[in-house]
Protein 1
Amino acid sequence: MARDTRDRILGALRVVLARGGSSAATLEAVAAEAAVSKGGLLYHFPSKQALYEGLVAQTRASVEAELGTLMHPEEVVRRYLEYVAPRDEHERGFILALINALQETRTGSGVVTDEPDLSDVFGQIFAAWEEPVRAAIGDPITAEIVLQVGNGWYLSAIAGLRHPPAEVLTGTIDRLVSVASAAHTPPEGPR
């Protein structure tokens, strides 16, 4: 029950961030969206900082859980590219708002706090994908191409640059998976 409430609150934070940006993500707004009292929210997350830390931890855990289920090199490459290509304005809005919110919780009123530094959360999440992608491909050049394409898509999305149409994005992912699969060098076994 408590886990369900925590997850509902974190889901509400995602919705509020995507809908109204970091300035709209007040404790009251998140509590209302989650259909809990402000006291109920504070029971699970004693501060706004703790709320964002919870969202970051949930995001990290989701990536790690997904990585644990991927068995074939092609799956790793495909899921990475799908993960880094925000597919709609709602997701793009959430990412932008989360970046702004993490920056605000880190600096408060312009003074760096003693709170944990959450500003590099996206760097940490991308780093969680890096080794599995490199290992899945084997060839360092092809792996770097795939990783940099993913980084470019992600940064383009949050910068508001033109995103390729869905069919082009899907075709590009398919092509990169094919190239990565062809470049895959399985680890040498015992001789």
Protein 2
Amino acid sequence: MLLAVLMLCPCRAGAHSEEASQKHQAGDPFPKEEGPAVGIDERLGAKIPLDATFRDETGKTVRLGDLITGPTIILPVYYSCANVCNYLQGGLARVLPTIKNRPVAEYRVISFSFDESETPQLAARYKRMYLTSMNVPFPEDGWRFLTGDAANIRRVTAAAGYSFQRRGRDFIHPVTTLVVAGDGTIVRYLYGTTFLAKDVSLALLEAREGKAGASIRKVMEFCFSFDPTGKTYVFNLLRVSATVVILCAGGFLAFLLLGGTKRRKPGTLADKKEQD
């Protein structure tokens, strides 16, 4: 599915309100240029290349496979963006302390810049900013900030169906978050800069690939479904209500049948004694 709403994140510093950002997201017209269409072509079930290498916020070269060892939330951004990329990462920073999943032990977050000119020093600065904004302790290894060369960036974004274009110092790009399993399989796309705790928790549950047990996964999949239009998990009220009604009716019927059988048994024995 190719999203029609594209977003530009300005590099220029300045005061930007989220309301102004939303208006900007609606899109000022941009001149056409050669290159891939900008947007998301969802590739659920595809795998991102775990052998792709980046530099982390300390400047160390790391493989994605060394970081993605379980459910992982991936945010494609560029750090010098003063607009929606900040809202995207800030929105996630606000919701992570509210979910029950334990960082590092049960999930990890990766921000990676698709601007090959950005440096680990810049990544480290933004890491400090977002971890500090949480106002609660969050492990350093729980949220990694990566930079890389153009070749590795394109490998990851192409595998995810994530297309962007450079416009001068800025980029036109979708505002999208990926959730992947430990083997790099893409299990969910989350859209926009606002996160709901239940959406993040259920997406991480999907990414566990049955590690929590098939029964839990089946119950969650039965009670909740992902709405591709609203881009959120919704409670299947009719399905759950119908199931409860059927179970109650079945239980009541079983009670009547078993209760009637028990009441008839004494009478049957008495009849036999009278016949004797």
Protein 3
Amino acid sequence: MLAVMRLRNNLSTDVALRARDEDYAVARAQFHTQLSRQAGSPQAYDTHRVPPDGQALPYMVDGRRQVAMVDQPPTPITHKRPAVIFLHGGFAYGDEDWEMPQQFRDAGFMVAIPILRGENGQGGSFSLYYDEVNDVLAVADMLARQPYIDGDNLFVCGHSAGGSLAALAALAGSRFRAAASFGGAMDQRMMLPDRELMVFDPLDLEEIQMRSLVAFAHSFKCPTRLYYGHEETWLKPQCETTVARAAGHQVVTAKEVRGDHFTAVPGAINDCVSFFREHLTASGRAALNNRSSNAIAGMARTQPNTMPESFAGDSTLDEQMDQRHAESLARHRQRMDEMRKRHEELAAQLNGAGRPPLPTPNFPGPPGMPGGPGFPPTASSGGMVVRFQVLDYHGAEPAMTALKQACVGIAWVDRARIDYDESNRLIEVGVQGGFVNTSELSNRLRVAGFNLGTTQITR
């Protein structure tokens, strides 16, 4: 009976998780998670490749060598550049995750995406938001040692699972100028019914607290913004509680963005670019403001003839992304169904013991198309528009001619909706179907002579 009562108290999400008094970093130094099984991530994965414009940099953590996918350094190196550590959604890295933070690259930030312990066949044990925090801090240390990265201007953010982890890293380490979470849960009690993810004792409240940033909201070490979609009604109260508990300790804000767990991400990242810019040091601002056209060209995507053969064509890439999205969507739906079933079993157990009914957690529902766990900001047809901010144009052709030529052969581009507003310095490209991959078009536009700022996908 005592175990059943403890189980009910831990699962009940109708009240906020109890706050802890000590600093999160101090608590981590005194706590060691007890894993019920030593195994890699439960999420299936495809064999990943080093992106054509990226590099696989090793980082050491807890005596183990892991890798992070990092942008190629600009050529020539005129300034050390600010960098963003972007943590992917879900519990495995996929080639498609490389595209999600493209807006940060377009704004001039270097981007690093770590492959965490136990993911994609790497060593180490999956611990669900605990030991993985060490991985994030180790990546920050590794980046700070790179000759082309400004270690005083490091930022961290992530989507979904990556959002939770990014916020925990902002509690644990002092390396970051600012942090952001896109749809990351603040209270991990919602994960308890998922047997596949439960690698610790769900009856141990301390194990849950050490993975839930809402319990340590007073411990943020840098300004942090928590983004949630207006349809993520389950997440809004968690964000509000976190902000309230952080008051007087650090600047933590919550911001609602139109969309669901996936479709809200592009708008959130677009806002986050400005948020991170606000917290750059003088050297960081100078690095972004003084990007020369040569440096931008050095960041350009590797030309198609050097890409892996399976990614040689735009239509092939769209087909692969469509297939991967469908598979991810199916896995997500299966996972949510399993979590609901497990919750019903626990509720029946409690009711049979004569306890009050177990509140039903508002699990994130299976997302509709488009979007999916770990996918980049993508969109299907239906009024979607990609907007590129133009800082200046120095091409040989008239700007509109160069724009239309750059769009040739890109499957998702609606050629009837291509426009360059010279007065507002804005390129607008309509979406006609398939999934949007902005990176190739961004590369073509830069090669054509456009100096680009931010990229935004809107309806």
Protein 4
Amino acid sequence: MGGPTAMLRPEEEKMFEGQPRGFPFGDFDLEDVMLPEGEDMGIPSDTDEDNQEEEISSESGFGNVLVVDNLPQVGPEKYEKLTAILTKILSGSGRIREGGLFHPVDEASKMSKGYAFVEYENVEQARAAQAALNGYQLDKAHKFAACLYDEFERLAKVPDAYEEPGERVFTPGENLLDWLTDKRGRDQFVLRYGDESEVCWNDAAKQQEESVYKRSFWTEAFVEWSPRGSMLATVHRQGVALWGGKSFERLQRVGHPNVQSLLFSPCEKYMLTFSEFPAGPQGRPHFLAIVWEIRTGKRLRTFDGPHEEYAVGAMARPDRGMRWPAFRWSGGGDAPVLLAHMKANAISVYQAPEMTMLDKRSIKMENVQDWEWSPAAPDATLAAYQAEQGNLPARVVIMKLPSREELRQKNLFSVAGITMTWHPQGDYLAVQVDKWTKTKKSTTTNFELFSLREKDCPIDMLELANKSEKIQQFAWEPRGSRFALLHGDGSRPTVSIYNMKDNKSILSIYNMKDNKSSARGVTLLHTMTNKQCTSLHCLNRLHMPTLQGGHNGVVEFWDCEEMTLLSAGEHFMAQEVAWDPTGRYVATIVNAAAAMENGFQIWSFSGQPLYKTAHDRFFQLNWRPRPPSLLSEEKQKEIVKSLRKYSKRYEEEDEALLAQADTEFLAEREKQLSEWRNWLAAKKAAVEEREAFAREQLGNRVSAHEEFVIQQVEVSVVLDVKEEPAQKL
């Protein structure tokens, strides 16, 4: 091929190797490139504030080398012992290369110099080790100072003389609860599809989403709202960034290389970030968990090391790793903020902000296998399961912290497994108990139901008539006393709905013949058999969208006050269901795991489909949570009773919005029509000018239609077909 590319010099050919031929590199000047205003196209800028803490360059070849200072200075008699201790500590966050620990000794005094160089297998391990070891307290007199070798140049530029910083003018940030001031009381959700992340209003009145903020490459993994919705977290290779306010400005960022998971405290004051590293050919899998104070970005505590100590009971994976979340925050309210994790025969609890162990000792529990915090309680309440051991029975215990007072405990026998499910407001605890039969070849199932708001925390037991029937799902009704069971072994299971409070007429569809009840204080309200259902999603009045799964995403909305089917619909290929925080709307989702039909559909609480949006490579839809109401329960009940008084105004507002939407639609259509007419007039004028020029130049030799072939075509369209029986002759 010819052209400008043929004029390239040999060094230019090498420089532009792999580029499409024909580009005029010879006359190309990079300074001539103009990017769109306000868009950097992913190219870092020298003046960009976001790049002040960019990844450390490892061009020196020592990016995987860590320098650890403030080590004890010892003589020859203690040198080997100290080196062995250092090797054990330093290898906790990564594998040290063979001969990769250099612990220098002063030739004159024969004393160690108090620092060491550590070479890890790769840069990521060195960074993780630096995060874990910096500030590590070896003993009372020695606290590690860990620094990457490639940071030396930056640290060398720090002046020796202290320069007092100038006064900084305080600039108030944006209101983090700004979205709650929406006059129409709309909710927001965040979408993640392709390389885009977008925050939108759910505009049900106009039956569409309204974009609030959109950004490309905003996250490298996933996004997550804080529990009260004031912040949005984005995950990156270097760590986690937090965004909020009306313009979603960056509020905070914390450094945790290769972070994989994060967990906010319910009060939004603290955050835990987590990463794990697979085992090498001869090593063990290890992890790094860091607790941060969100407001200051201060690191409060670091947990790191091999998984073995933490991967216990239900927290252990088949690959010897640790299930997430192995660390869990206590519920909200006025209770102290606690973080806990399980280990062999104990549960360790730490209190924020000091992050010191509660009472300086773990809670001893022999053979503990699982535990769960109550999601909402005046005090931090913990439920734990201890498996059978020798002649000791299995045990479920409910404990109040920090007092360690046992509220209730229950002994169980022949236990094969246990699943604990807290009520969203902490009013009840359901314990699903799978028990071995006498032959140990099969299991039966029953439920132990704890009522924590009643005196002495009474326990009800619920058994199904078919004890061996598989329990597929248990779901509590939020802000209520009912729960639903999805049970059965086939593709069409049964849905049963129970109430914990009504003791007047205790019914059991399974034991009605002998007038016996399978639970002391549990009422069976309704049973739906042979349902195409794979999951239950309950909110407010226990409306239950039920998804068939697979191909036909059948969605049913049930009202459990009247036990009636409100409506049924279908969202083809739907895999997920997500209620908004108010219970007014629900989204059904088809994510990128499906090969087609990616996107979401919004429904009203009664099952009316509102709008549907498609996105290629659709990953996430997360509703923005709302903070707890500032109104008392009495005031909220009063407002609910007075809704009819406000309904007329709301209906008028909805009608005005629909009229506005129609007006905007008509105005947009008129605008498009006007643009089309202007374009058509311009084209006609251009054609007339061209024809006039042709006639002027060619005279009678030009024909206005010589460039066109006119054909007359007849087209038949069937508008309707109606069949009627022929009359007999």
